[in-house]
Protein backbone atom coordinates (compact mmCIF):
# COMPACT_ATOMS: atom_id res chain seq x y z
CA UNK A 1 0.00 0.00 0.00
CA UNK A 2 1.31 3.44 -0.91
CA UNK A 3 1.94 5.93 1.88
CA UNK A 4 -0.89 8.33 2.66
CA UNK A 5 -0.38 11.90 1.48
CA UNK A 6 1.91 13.57 -1.00
CA UNK A 7 5.50 14.50 -0.06
CA UNK A 8 5.90 18.03 1.31
CA UNK A 9 8.18 18.86 -1.62
CA UNK A 10 5.62 17.77 -4.23
CA UNK A 11 2.80 19.48 -2.28
CA UNK A 12 4.79 22.71 -2.38
CA UNK A 13 4.94 22.61 -6.18
CA UNK A 14 1.17 22.17 -6.68
CA UNK A 15 -0.79 25.10 -8.08
CA UNK A 16 -4.53 25.50 -8.51
CA UNK A 17 -3.79 26.56 -12.10
CA UNK A 18 -2.76 22.94 -12.77
CA UNK A 19 -6.45 21.98 -12.34
CA UNK A 20 -8.58 25.08 -13.04
CA UNK A 21 -8.54 27.26 -16.16
CA UNK A 22 -6.95 30.70 -15.71
CA UNK A 23 -10.19 32.55 -16.44
CA UNK A 24 -11.74 30.90 -13.35
CA UNK A 25 -8.88 31.86 -11.00
CA UNK A 26 -8.58 34.81 -8.67
CA UNK A 27 -5.12 35.82 -7.45
CA UNK A 28 -4.97 36.34 -3.68
CA UNK A 29 -2.66 38.77 -1.86
CA UNK A 30 -2.60 39.59 1.84
CA UNK A 31 -4.98 36.69 2.62
CA UNK A 32 -5.20 35.96 6.37
CA UNK A 33 -5.58 32.35 7.49
CA UNK A 34 -4.18 30.33 10.40
CA UNK A 35 -2.75 33.54 11.89
CA UNK A 36 -0.47 34.04 8.87
CA UNK A 37 -0.46 36.15 5.70
CA UNK A 38 -0.71 34.34 2.38
CA UNK A 39 -0.70 34.75 -1.39
CA UNK A 40 -2.26 32.25 -3.72
CA UNK A 41 -5.03 31.28 -6.09
CA UNK A 42 -8.74 30.81 -5.54
CA UNK A 43 -11.75 29.62 -7.46
CA UNK A 44 -14.87 30.16 -5.36
CA UNK A 45 -14.08 28.57 -1.97
CA UNK A 46 -11.25 26.44 -3.35
CA UNK A 47 -8.01 28.12 -2.25
CA UNK A 48 -4.39 27.09 -2.73
CA UNK A 49 -2.13 29.23 -0.57
CA UNK A 50 1.54 30.10 -0.20
CA UNK A 51 3.01 32.03 2.72
CA UNK A 52 3.94 35.64 1.90
CA UNK A 53 7.33 34.85 3.45
CA UNK A 54 7.84 31.90 1.05
CA UNK A 55 5.68 32.68 -2.00
CA UNK A 56 7.05 29.86 -4.18
CA UNK A 57 5.86 27.01 -1.93
CA UNK A 58 2.23 25.87 -1.58
CA UNK A 59 1.51 25.27 2.10
CA UNK A 60 -2.28 25.03 2.27
CA UNK A 61 -4.96 23.56 0.02
CA UNK A 62 -8.72 23.91 0.46
CA UNK A 63 -11.05 22.14 -1.96
CA UNK A 64 -14.76 22.93 -2.33
CA UNK A 65 -16.03 19.57 -3.54
CA UNK A 66 -19.51 20.95 -4.29
CA UNK A 67 -18.50 23.92 -6.47
CA UNK A 68 -15.96 22.08 -8.63
CA UNK A 69 -16.74 19.56 -11.37
CA UNK A 70 -16.50 16.08 -9.83
CA UNK A 71 -13.63 15.03 -12.12
CA UNK A 72 -11.61 18.17 -11.25
CA UNK A 73 -12.15 17.69 -7.52
CA UNK A 74 -11.17 14.03 -7.75
CA UNK A 75 -8.03 14.90 -9.73
CA UNK A 76 -7.03 17.25 -6.91
CA UNK A 77 -7.70 14.62 -4.22
CA UNK A 78 -5.73 12.05 -6.20
CA UNK A 79 -2.80 14.49 -6.60
CA UNK A 80 -2.77 14.88 -2.80
CA UNK A 81 -2.68 11.07 -2.52
CA UNK A 82 -5.76 10.90 -0.33
CA UNK A 83 -8.12 7.88 -0.42
CA UNK A 84 -11.22 10.09 -0.43
CA UNK A 85 -13.98 11.24 -2.75
CA UNK A 86 -16.83 13.72 -2.58
CA UNK A 87 -19.93 12.46 -0.78
CA UNK A 88 -18.30 10.04 1.68
CA UNK A 89 -20.05 9.93 5.06
CA UNK A 90 -18.32 10.17 8.46
CA UNK A 91 -18.15 6.40 8.90
CA UNK A 92 -16.57 5.90 5.48
CA UNK A 93 -13.99 8.63 6.16
CA UNK A 94 -13.01 7.29 9.59
CA UNK A 95 -12.90 3.78 8.11
CA UNK A 96 -10.11 4.99 5.81
CA UNK A 97 -8.34 7.59 7.98
CA UNK A 98 -9.03 6.29 11.50
CA UNK A 99 -10.47 8.35 14.34
CA UNK A 100 -10.15 12.13 14.06
CA UNK A 101 -7.96 14.06 16.47
CA UNK A 102 -10.78 16.57 16.83
CA UNK A 103 -14.14 17.69 15.54
CA UNK A 104 -15.55 21.15 14.92
CA UNK A 105 -19.14 22.15 14.27
CA UNK A 106 -19.67 25.57 12.70
CA UNK A 107 -23.13 24.83 11.28
CA UNK A 108 -25.97 22.62 12.48
CA UNK A 109 -26.03 20.36 9.40
CA UNK A 110 -22.30 19.58 9.08
CA UNK A 111 -19.26 18.60 11.10
CA UNK A 112 -15.57 19.04 10.36
CA UNK A 113 -13.37 16.08 11.25
CA UNK A 114 -9.71 16.94 11.88
CA UNK A 115 -7.05 14.31 11.22
CA UNK A 116 -3.30 14.22 11.65
CA UNK A 117 -1.75 12.19 8.88
CA UNK A 118 1.37 10.72 10.45
CA UNK A 119 3.23 9.82 7.31
CA UNK A 120 6.96 10.34 6.84
CA UNK A 121 5.95 13.96 6.21
CA UNK A 122 2.91 14.77 8.37
CA UNK A 123 -0.18 16.79 7.49
CA UNK A 124 -3.28 18.15 9.13
CA UNK A 125 -6.37 17.24 7.13
CA UNK A 126 -9.86 18.61 7.82
CA UNK A 127 -12.90 17.02 6.21
CA UNK A 128 -16.25 18.83 6.34
CA UNK A 129 -19.11 16.35 6.17
CA UNK A 130 -22.66 17.55 5.45
CA UNK A 131 -25.36 15.35 6.99
CA UNK A 132 -27.05 14.78 3.59
CA UNK A 133 -24.32 15.49 0.99
CA UNK A 134 -21.43 13.77 2.78
CA UNK A 135 -17.88 15.08 2.25
CA UNK A 136 -18.21 18.57 0.76
CA UNK A 137 -14.97 20.37 1.68
CA UNK A 138 -11.45 19.54 2.74
CA UNK A 139 -8.33 21.40 3.77
CA UNK A 140 -4.80 20.07 4.01
CA UNK A 141 -1.52 21.58 5.11
CA UNK A 142 1.87 20.22 6.12
CA UNK A 143 2.74 20.29 9.80
CA UNK A 144 4.33 22.08 11.36
CA UNK A 145 3.65 25.21 9.32
CA UNK A 146 6.52 27.70 9.34
CA UNK A 147 5.86 31.17 10.75
**Pattern of helices and strands:** HEEEEHHEEEE
Helical residues, percent: 10-25%
Q: Largest sheet, described in full?
A: 8 strands, antiparallel
Strand content: 35-45%
Rg from C-alpha positions? 15 Å
Number of strands: 8
Spatial strand order of the main sheet: 1-2-3-4-8-7-6-5
Count of structural domains: 1
In DSSP terms (H or I, runs of 4 or more residues), the helix count works out at: 3
Counting copies of identical and different chains, the oligomeric state is single chain
Q: How far apart, in Å, are the first and last alpha carbons?
A: 33 Å
Structural classification: alpha+beta
Mean pLDDT: 93
Description:
The chain is an alpha+beta fold and 147 residues long. The chain has helices at 8-13, 70-79, 90-97; strands at 26-33, 36-43, 46-51, 58-64, 102-107, 110-117, 123-130, 134-142. It has one domain. The protein has three helices and eight strands, in the order αββββααββββ. 31% of the residues are buried.
Q: What is the structure about, briefly put?
A:
The protein has about 150 residues and is α+β, with helices and mostly antiparallel strands. It is built from three helices and eight strands, in the order αββββααββββ.
Amino acid sequence: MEPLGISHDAFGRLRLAHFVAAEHLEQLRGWEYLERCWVGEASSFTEWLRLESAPEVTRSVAIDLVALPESTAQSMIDALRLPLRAGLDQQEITGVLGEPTGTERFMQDRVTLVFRIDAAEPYELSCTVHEEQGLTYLTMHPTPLPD
